[in-house]
Protein 1
Amino acid sequence: MNALAKTYERSRIPRYLQVAATLRRRIQSGHWQPGAKISTLEELEDEFQVARVTVRQAVELLQEEGLVQRRQGKGTFVAQNVKDTRWLRLAVEWSSLIAMIKENAPRFIPVREPPPVPRLQAGEGRLAPRYRYLRSVQSRNTEPYALASVHIAQQLYDRDPSAFQSQAALAVVSSFADIKIARAHQTLIIGGADMETAEHLKVPLSSPTAEAHCVVIDEHGIAIYVGEIIYRGDFIKLDIDLLRSAPAT
Amino acid sequence: MNALAKTYERSRIPRYLQVAATLRRRIQSGHWQPGAKISTLEELEDEFQVARVTVRQAVELLQEEGLVQRRQGKGTFVAQNVKDTRWLRLAVEWSSLIAMIKENAPRFIPVREPPPVPRLQAGEGRLAPRYRYLRSVQSRNTEPYALASVHIAQQLYDRDPSAFQSQAALAVVSSFADIKIARAHQTLIIGGADMETAEHLKVPLSSPTAEAHCVVIDEHGIAIYVGEIIYRGDFIKLDIDLLRSAPAT
DNA sequence: CTCAATTTGTTCGTATGTATG
DNA sequence: ACATACATACGAACAAATTGA
């Protein structure tokens, strides 16, 4: 077995899908500009070390998606109407996070069985006696970019149920002037879209996502908000100022 | 055709992988708590509308990952110690970034033709007259976790070439006491491993990655370090204190 | 102790999808 | 386009372990 074959065998996803995903990314990231000619089948064959039929299958897939056009004897060309994504700056700070989520109206999803309240890590405060569970899809310009699943302390929810059913929960929380927030902590990992997520975000299954786990703790040490927000991986971007809190030598 | 079948057909990823992904999320999100019994094969069969053998294949995968335990006649149970494989905390702050990269010895990769120096965005300072290009694989416990491609200002490199060829570039930079760093900025996006990256990180092609673009600017406004570090997406985790700089209401 | 219900484990034949040369 | 090999997926039947009546 050669070295490249090993690379493929690390995943059980069919090879032509792996190749297609790579090509798709090159187009969407602008590495291959709209209108440009992409590598010939032979070059791709060479690069990815797969049979000709396999690259063809990959390119065919992209054609079905409207990302490329193939012309016999000429080559394969990137479609003109491919737009650059990556417009969502993910907040790494409370005020900008609030500002961001206030910009879009969530569409709420009915929930049949609320899942159990997730366990909290050390330092994430104590649980409230009861929670309300809310799910919503966040969109901008009719394009869904995140799926939010949120546990909000029942006591807080009861203060303004209609607000919680029409706005993003964090926006409502921040609007309560008397609530003092002692800690707001977020963990971010990279995941892949499962069926439900893929459905709501209108992305292919297993396409990369950013999962934000956010816990907000009030002055009494109670976790008043425990949320899991799944973002489309290809929409987001983080800007981090490494010197924000401390100067370096 | 029902809704599930449609979702399946949209994606050509094997069904048992799709089912496995959904179950995996239920466990990791705490929907199915550690120790709890998950749905029976029959129920899963029903829910996902797939054959028994297919759900079994999915559950088998989760067992191999150590997420569940199966017992004949009893059922399938979520493991008690769902271990977190995201051991790499990506730094969002200069000092912790330096601390992290000092922990591991990079393996340097010979470079044939250095790529051109990347363009800088507005506010990312001015370019140095010349750069040195270095590539290295970062590992911990023999497990590669990142591929670094770095442009370092030639003037800086010449001060201690051997250091730059044995340690991570940022670690060397931070060890120069007389260098004042005016800005250190990092942009993070989610990408997918290309052939070369997949090879070096020993991951499947197109598996999710975190691409960090880091620019370090000295007191004269010169970009002394321009690096692109590609991390394995499944190893990393970002901890963000949303209130770090400013308290909230 | 036995029986029945429940639940996972195993096997077979068949059809289709993936990948190669 | 063809022959070949292997993976995926189905349905159905049967086996084995566990539990409680």
Protein 2
Amino acid sequence: MAPNVKYSASKENHLKAIFHLQQEQGIVTTNALAAALQTRPASVTDMLKKLKDQKLLIYERYKGFKLNNEGRKAALQVIRKHRLWEYFLVKKLQFGWDEVHEIAEELEHIASKKLIDRLDAFLGFPEADPHGDPIPDSQGRLQMRRQINLAQLPLNKVAQVSGIASQTSEMLELLQYNHIRLGTRLEIKKKFPFDDSLEVKVRNRPPVTLSARVAKNVLVNDDEPITERR
Amino acid sequence: MAPNVKYSASKENHLKAIFHLQQEQGIVTTNALAAALQTRPASVTDMLKKLKDQKLLIYERYKGFKLNNEGRKAALQVIRKHRLWEYFLVKKLQFGWDEVHEIAEELEHIASKKLIDRLDAFLGFPEADPHGDPIPDSQGRLQMRRQINLAQLPLNKVAQVSGIASQTSEMLELLQYNHIRLGTRLEIKKKFPFDDSLEVKVRNRPPVTLSARVAKNVLVNDDEPITERR
DNA sequence: TTTTATTTTTAGATTTGTCTAAAATTTATT
DNA sequence: AATAAATTTTAGACAAATCTAAAAATAAAA
């Protein structure tokens, strides 16, 4: 049933953004979604009505909303496409991991499921995109990973960067400047309660200071990284 | 100047279709374009006005139209994108050459020029797409090739299939069924003046009969193919 | 060269996605 | 609890791309 349902690019963008927001907050608000999509609350309300009519979300006016099963499945297909294209751009076309997001935003709206499954195979069924975010499989199953943000990491505990929450190019540029990338191992050397900024140490580099805003957007593995191989 | 001008998908489709039509007929008519795009003449007129305002074509009402320099350049960029994606789909993702057109119709509207130039390099700067149609280079230069259609080929002269004019999936299916594909060498064994159908022979195969309609859409090299290597 | 037929354009509507400004509702604050 | 502030929704408008039906222009035929 419903193997190749096609939603407009705008609807897909809304579904995807709702999915990400409800990961963090459970229920999503109109204002939050409008901010995430750089649009107006009124426009969001308009779209919510359409998505509700299409039975993709649970929504009662003034009370917030979240995806239902159908909506979640649709969102995961978009996320799958986005992340596979990002992987393709970096691994095959030699793009930098910090410059692929915008292009993938366009590619993710190409409909053909066959295309995506072939691309997946061509890329060797990668598990994560270049930012470390896991790629849903063909059935939309997303292998969840235990991630915490850098602000939550205890002092002096080494962790490995496994994802970047906010992927604006400004953010990615800042991280690149500080030699923080996917897979980078780092530890917090000092926390400044005044503004919650952190002094972070990456191996073989002088320590750098990160604002609380940045730290909250750097995701790291919750458990001990591999430090020795045997 | 104007390196990354972005036109809507619909405008790009119009530009591309006009380009193809004027290749054959010099000047293009509203009805012909409407037929090519499977839309209505009134819709075409609406779009023509917009394209004229954007200075992409020469158009006087009731008198037909054609692309100007700017429009031709834009059309060639779309054609370049389309053909490179087709090549990618066939050569890298193992699609059949008769099933890539629809997907490429979507991919061709992705904007980034950098993406396309990287893709071009990744594919090894191919000269022609899987249907044998030449791929414009990064500057939009299209290397023209001497092609005639199969109906014009003299009796018993071997020629090599170098392009398919009408790429409907019905047409491509028919050709595939008859083992006629890009690069296939064939010759005309008999012409039937009654309906201008042809008996065509492909090496190691029994002869097949093609209608005049099909023959006009199969393009072959004008000059002798290479039969021996030295 | 009139008349008829065809082609093309205009006029007015529709759909999708967006917006602003105002109204309705909920939440927060005195 | 009453009022103020913030959030969310509605009402009405607009742009893009399309459509149908009717009018205008051109081409073909009698």
Protein 3
Amino acid sequence: MTERQTSSVKPSGPTGRSTRTPAGRSTRTSAGKSAAKSAGGPAGAPADRPLRADARRNRRRVLDAARDVFLEHGTEAQMEDIARRAGVGVGTIYRHFPTKQALVNELTEQWMAEGAVNAADALALPDAWEALTVFVRQSTEIMVRDRGLREVYGDIGKLLDNGAGTEHQQLRANVTKLLDRAHEAGVLRADVGYPQFQALMCGLAMATTRAAPGEHHVYADVVLNGLKT
Amino acid sequence: MTERQTSSVKPSGPTGRSTRTPAGRSTRTSAGKSAAKSAGGPAGAPADRPLRADARRNRRRVLDAARDVFLEHGTEAQMEDIARRAGVGVGTIYRHFPTKQALVNELTEQWMAEGAVNAADALALPDAWEALTVFVRQSTEIMVRDRGLREVYGDIGKLLDNGAGTEHQQLRANVTKLLDRAHEAGVLRADVGYPQFQALMCGLAMATTRAAPGEHHVYADVVLNGLKT
DNA sequence: TCCTAACTGGAAGTCGAATTCCGGTTCCGG
DNA sequence: CCGGAACCGGAATTCGACTTCCAGTTAGGA
């Protein structure tokens, strides 16, 4: 007992059990994104370190493998599958991420960041409605081919809504701007704010889950159409 | 080894594992709904029997408890919780339903049947668009307060789409008629058939999951609006 | 009322998947 | 080129469900 995890994962779940939360002792990594919010280690911890070359390489491999596996099988894919895909042992995954949930969170932030960029790109368009349309269509495209993303999107409410990651803050800010512009132009239903929009995107993700290839635009169109005043 | 289960549950899942499928030896019950599709027991089975009074009572208790628990916690609720709620032991649940999945399936059929009735009611309305509107709104209302239903609805594709229960056949028939009438009246997008509509309802279920109370009508409105030609 | 097949509850058994542990291997400063 | 701190891999452990088992209880016909 030398260090203490500050982030960890909230159990949530129905009766209180279900998803485990096993304390997951830190392995002093996480040097990647998300600036160290160190709570000041009482026992003079060596703070953050550079991370050896091979370790950094493996960390990336794990992240990439996890993205691929989750993309195809969703977050219920197993750690062993990820490890195999990454060409490492499960132990290596755990050296970099204290729990499976931590791994999922890392990827979630990555997804959020990409979404924020897409929203920013859309904001560059002059027409407010076209911007929204482009963003929705693009997001749909992405979700159609990423099962992991769809799942995570369905849980955003529980995991990140209460202002967790910086990436999400950015995404929210950009999308809100997108919506505000559309409101000002008078082309978007007044009763649809960010929360409602997010929920609808969730729904879109769900709907597209079973869409035949090349058919998902129907769902995006229905939602877009329904959003118009 | 005297009897053999015919229904059972397909594993599905990502890598092939996940939801178990442990053979679940039959306990010769299932006297309830769904006419016995007996495959003709090779060893002269006693066929269906009346089911003792207390057994019938407990079966109903279990079903009711399961509905309540799933409604609140979703299908990830535990068998023990259901048993406690029903005031019986888990063994009793298993005498009536070979697996948890079988219990879920039974409730699913129940839900389907209710949905079919609602669709039939809507069909009684003279105006095609109004009928569709009423059905969508009503379905939304129901899903808002039943987490289990939402989850099951999201899995219909895997579990029942390929024509499983009679209840679903009925639901599908009624809804199809609802859609056809709307098409004929020229008020419904031509590219939305039963599969698309079902997917959209799924999405609606997802969206409403996080709706603030009394706000879910927004989502239903958006979808309905989007469905119009 | 009595007998026995059915039914009941819940402790014990299984099982899949996450997480931990540790002997062997690999970077990298001196 | 060497030594040892870091890092690896994957077998072993842990954990939380679901499912099975069986000694005891009960419904309901003779």
